[in-house]
Automatic annotation (TrEMBL):
Provenance organism: Leptospira adleri
Domain spans labelled AAA: 1-164
Annotated Pfam families: AAA_31
Superkingdom per UniProt: Bacteria
Record protein name field: Chromosome partitioning protein ParA
Alphabetical list of InterPro entries matching this protein: AAA_dom (IPR025669), DNA_Partitioning_ATPase (IPR050678), P-loop_NTPase (IPR027417)
Amino acid sequence: MKVYTFANVKGGVSKSTSASHLSMALARRGKTLGVDHDPQADMSDVFFPDESPEFFDQANTFTVIRSESTLKEAIKSKYGVDLLLSALELEDFQYYVGKDVSLVTRLNEVLRKSEYDFVVIDTPGSGSSEMLSALLATDAVIIPVNPSKWAVRTIKKVFRKINEACNFPGSHLTSVSILPTIWGKSGRSEQIFDQLQQIPQLLKFLQSTEIGFEKVPVPIILPPIPQSSTIRDRTEFGEPLKEGTEGWLAYDLLADLIIEKTGAVITNK
């Protein structure tokens, strides 16, 4: 099993969209679980846009972490993906971690006992306890970035969270990738993409000059996910991408690349 976590402290970078469509692409290759670890429940809404809040309250990521329900009891399935959904109560996660710090590693314990080939975790757009919980459960981090002037600066902040997770005993985190998303063909996009290519060198510089980056794996720069009204509209309406379209092909390639880069072994074809 390989666990992939989408993480960025900045919102609006297509994090939940990418987590959702990558989950569907991976499900075409092996048994896949999507985990929504964000109180905003955007990934949950992609798969179940028309369900009432009560549908998410029954059993979810928060109830599983608190041992109020089992993973099996909480699973919902759609588009070939098993889903562990979020709920608004996940906003209280940081409060409960303050009372019982062992909860921050609970997701890792649950996932490592499961029998999935792939797990994809969506996290909040902040450096919260939910993000740390996901990073402690993951093998690989995927940092989605859009063509924004803040792209490089936000990556640096995520690196610090990754380093924090890597310092925990038993960390599985060995891979970091940067995924350009909502990527157009403007000169600005090209300029920022060139900046992203320098991120491995920036990390080496940070490791030699600052504290808090020493255990961050050297990042891989992935091919961009294109800016696409089809991706946006299909995601908004909770529909999978149509096979053969530009967006479908981009996420299909992403699935193949991360399987290769992380050495994932598929046992549940």
